[in-house]
Amino acid sequence: MKKVLIVDDEIRMLDLIEVYLQPHGYECIKISQSRDGLDIIKQKR
Length: 45
Description:
There is one protein chain. The protein has one domain: 3-Layer(aba) Sandwich (Rossmann fold). The longest helix has 11 residues. The chain has a two-stranded parallel sheet. The two termini are 17 Å apart. The chain is α+β, with helices and mostly antiparallel strands. It contains 2 helices and 2 strands; from the N terminus they run βαβα.
């Protein structure tokens, strides 16, 4: 399964993107704060 990091300040948009991507084989990591997203990117390297 492919992983994708989604960063948006609107929770509804995060959920909508996840609903679209999951059936296509993506595992979604949803973040609403850009700083949290940067931390996750640094951890996953």
